[in-house]
Write a structure and sequence with these properties.
By secondary structure, the protein is an all-alpha fold. The chain is 64% helix and 0% strand. The longest helix is centred in the last third of the chain and has 34 residues, at 347-380. The protein starts with 29 loop residues before the first helix and ends in an 18-residue tail after the last helix.
Length: 398
Amino acid sequence: MPAPAPASASPAPTKPANPPDTLAPGGRVDALTGLRFLAALAVFAHHFTGLGGPQSGVARVPALFPYTTMGVHGVGFFFVLSGFLLAWGYRPGASARLFYWRRAGRIWPAHLAASLLALVLLFWWGGRATDAFSVLSSVLLVQTWFPGVTPTLPGNSVAWTLSVELFFYALFPLLVRGALALRTRTLLAVCGSSLAVMAAVNLWLLTHLSGAAAEWVMRHPLARLPEFGLGLAVALTLRRGSRPALRAWPVVVVLAAYTVAYTRRAEWAGQGTVVLEATVRPVVAVLAVGLVVACVVRATGGGARREGWLASPVMVRLGLWSYAFYLLHQTLNCAITDRWGHQPAGGVALFTMIGTAVAATALAGALYHGVEEPARRWWAARPPRWAGSAVGRTVPGA
């Protein structure tokens, strides 16, 4: 708190505590790292138990299905968290070129290693159909811009989200500067409006386009931008001093209730099922940002870091491995299915699911320590001249 002016002095002009152009970067919140692994685990559970629906031959666990199908929207959490973390650690005036350089070193080494594994196991040994253009688009992370790739998600199928993230990274320096110029109320209003437009577009797609075409549009980087923007806007709002009295457990309760309603939508009649499907991504984005805000408020409140079990050493370690886990899990799922066939639904599938998760986690640890982190450090320490010097600077989201 600034010292009061002497009684004889004229009142000094007041300034906001955190004017938009002098924001200090936010500190590390370990609970968000732990939360990343839970989101990756939700995506894994969806792929193992529910991909293709109950009538497909995919192994599933009756006790968990269909609720695990909600895990597909864990990628929406990643988009929100990405926008939040980049804005949370942003320093005004940081080099955009250095940001791009370091993002490349963060994303590509593990992606290339995981893509090579997927190509060998699924397309070479597994004999799945693809073509050179589709493979190249996946390696370069531009596959979401082309509707005609083979298969629909070529190469390492889960890497489509990295294609979306790459677009977000390209826009981030411009977006964050524009967001800093807006008042908080205006910024949040823009984000709310963009989520409403997202829902309206999804509704139109579901009622006017075929399934494959609608899915391609809803995976398109432009279509997912509102989720990233929401995370960015909320991070700047918190950095400007806002601390809503939000706890995690009410958000979790709402998420659980919404999961039941959403995953049981096929049992309903009428237009409500279409509306639920059209609005699920904006709703999940809002719930995701609620969890993020609750973690940040808990970590920064009361002058002490009390982040709970999500910030435990085990969860933080798993969170650090979550990117590698995400990149590897579906390749492992598909390779097991190709080799041993579909597991019958029941208890055996549950043990297979647990074993697959453990194996994917072990492989993720190896990929993180053997490739991802060493390559990231090596890359970050060698910026080219065009990227500017790293000395005395902090890149956005570092």
